[in-house]
Description:
This protein is α+β, with helices and mostly antiparallel strands.
Amino acid sequence: MSNERRSHVRVRPVPETPIKVELLGDIRISVEVFDVSVGGLGLLREGPLADAKIGSDLGFRVTVEGQEAIDVSCNVRHTGSARHPVVGVAFGQLEDDAAKRIRAYVSDLLERGAG
């Protein structure tokens, strides 16, 4: 997906400000975060996401260090390529507090120069 089509700036997590994302299901499985935006997540296409299908709805638990976890519903928008194996998921309807916390996280990373 080209940058021109994106409606939200994306930032990459840094060790000083970690974010944990778990795929929800019968058991929670941690997934690797490639990037974050106020509109969704870029997740490495491996493990449980290796067979993700465009249009699929998935549930995730998102935890920013030092904050309460946020459970979010997401829709798979793209599944990447062999060269760029990242699954892009868009957040569904977020509660105001959840949206505010994700915006704050992205803003903090932007201020630190992550990108």
